[in-house]
Amino acid sequence: MKSKNSLEIKKEVSIRKMRWLLFLLGRIRIPLIGYTNPKLLSIDDQSVRVRIKLRRRTKNHLNSMYFGALAVGADIAGGIQVFYFSKMLGKEISFAFKGMNAAFIKRAESDIIFESTQGELVKAAIDKSIAEKVRVNESIEVRAINDAQEIVAKFDMIISVRVA
Hints:
Layout: H1 15-29, H2 31-36, E1 39-43, E2 48-52, H3 67-89, E3 93-104, E4 112-116, H4 119-132, E5 136-145, E6 151-163
Antiparallel strand pairs: 1-2, 2-4, 3-6, 4-5, 5-6
């Protein structure tokens, strides 16, 4: 039995639908996302995994991933879960990033997987926004992982959500 304040899920959301939403977001609303051509690998209530390939569009002059492309990956991994919960609830959620802190640990010289396992924090922020009818800020962590399974960057993203 769900508690009074927890999300009341109206419908299941497929990864196919979320991939289509990401594609449209990149083509219509945020062209820079479309330019980096991210691939949503997995999404559920707990975690998100997104891949951006190292290619001409995402490389810098040192043949590693440009920090702007890394920021786009962190943006997607940190934010797409809000859209996921929005679709599950059938509600409009106003969402923005309020801040970001990045630590670049080593060069990203391969395709990069952006991973966030902070779904519970995102869900709690949405629950709190529903209960208190206010905008809620929450800090979540996104890790950038290379092909050798090494962490190349860590991002602390401050998400700001309000359920309409």
